[in-house]
Amino acid sequence: MTTSQQLEITFSSGRSGTGPATWGQQAIWDAVGRLSPADAPRYNITTAAPLDPGLPVPVVLDALTGLLHLHDSLHTRLHPDGEGRLRQTVDPDGRLPVHTRHGDGDSAELARTGAAFHDELAALPFDCTTQWPVRVGLVVAGDLVRHISLVLSHTALDGAGMGRLVTDLTELSLGASAAAIRARRPAQQPLEEAAFQQSERGRRRDANARAHVLRKLRSGPPRLFPAARHDEPQPFPNAVLSSPALLRAVELVAAGHRASTSSVLLAATAVMTARLAGSSDAVLQVIVNNRFLPGLTAAVSVVAGDGLLHLPDADGEFAAVVRRTHAASIATYRHAYYDKRLLDEEIARLTAEHGPLADRSCIFNDTRDLVPPSPGEPATPSPGDAAGTASGDPLDPARTTLSWPKEFEPRPGLTYALDALQAPDALQLAMTADGSVLPRPRMERFLYGIEELVVTEARALATSTAAPAATTTPDTPTTTPTTTTPTAAQATPGS
């Protein structure tokens, strides 16, 4: 039996102010505003976790209060000005409802109660003009919180921001103070970020980034796939490939070609896009987390942006495509922080004057490791770990599965969106596509094709490095490839 109750956190003495919205806040506000009210909650950023053996309710409420003091985005409201632009108001005080459900039973039963409660909270939209953009749900048994849900409006943060929020909440729950966390991980607040964006330096960065994107748009093909056919709009199917073999193979290929694992997945996505489109080019919108920029590493706000990758000759030999993708992606990551409204205006003007620009309907988003694993979650096996398959071969795709968990409302202008996800013992690829352009059999071919490309290349690299070792002489030393992790200069993808 479960009963519901609403608690409340009283927040006071917080930072306050008002000013222009950030580029990220404005971009998400515009995107959500184009959706129907029923579809808007799919933009919410959410996370949930069981707490075993649990934490006292006062400890959790105090930790949540500390979060409000750490991150202004959690007590910020948004409102349009008279000129159609968005402004943000940071409230110095207020009350945050905490939705509570009392449950009983064992840990498994409480986890099921928490999961159902989380789904209810996540399915509700936000009114960010009158509400703070955060919703908290607790499942309480006795005097202990046994499950916690966090649901936030996407105008408050992005996926990487949620990862930092979870880290901070964990430390606060374990007794750290907000002041100590702030001193250890200083982060720019949204009003400070907006001030930079309005500065001369910020405007130069914006102009340079938009100029780069427009150059790529002028060089790519205006259409990759045939136009969508929608006599009556149909839901977009969602497929999830779960592959232990890909988890290991992507690390081996990255090491072998001195690229990032994101570049390897991006290259395989580009190859499959070109193959299925019957084109030699691939054009992908790449979600970039932008956390490499000064002051934004630990930011809990909307920082991620859309980069554009145009890759000619994407139908070439895969090893070469990986190397070219890695080089090209660095420029993509560097030029994904800009005012999207201004870019959209420029695209509309250039389209009217010169005709369609490059196809922007294919989206790649590497979301791995954005949210830290829950306590007790198994660690991801290393690439060299040979356990896990009947054959003992870590590159054996025998355990790969493909599922079709849900369907989404149609999204105009989208051919497909591909997310890379991290599971405890597999790499997952979640693909949502317009079924009139990419029917389910072609989606299946796309996902299995990515796995095949990466696994085949990993096997080839293993063979080529093993062969010289058998005939090594003192005059011909062997070397072991090392993985190159993207640096701050190279940046890292993800929302």
Question: Can you walk me through this structure?
Answer:
By secondary structure, this protein is an alpha+beta fold. Helix content is 38%, strand content 23%. It has twelve helices and 15 strands. Strands 11-10-12-14-15-9-13 form a seven-stranded mixed sheet. It starts with a strand and ends in a 25-residue tail after the last helix. The model is unreliable at 373-388 and 469-494 (pLDDT under 50).
Strand residues, percent:
15-25%
Question: What general outline do the C-alpha atoms trace?
Answer: globular
Structural class: alpha+beta
**Order of strands across the widest beta sheet?**
11-10-12-14-15-9-13
Low-confidence stretches: 373-388, 469-494
Strands, helices and their partners?
Elements (H helix, E strand, L loop, with lengths): L2 E9 L5 E4 L2 H11 L11 E12 H14 L5 E5 L5 E5 L3 E9 L4 H16 L11 E8 L2 E9 L6 H15 L4 H7 L5 H9 L1 H20 L16 E8 H14 L3 H17 L4 E7 L16 E7 L6 H17 L5 H15 L7 E5 L34 E8 L7 E8 L2 E8 L6 H31 L25
Parallel strand pairs: 6-7, 10-12, 12-14
Antiparallel strand pairs: 1-6, 2-5, 3-8, 4-5, 7-8, 9-13, 9-15, 10-11, 14-15
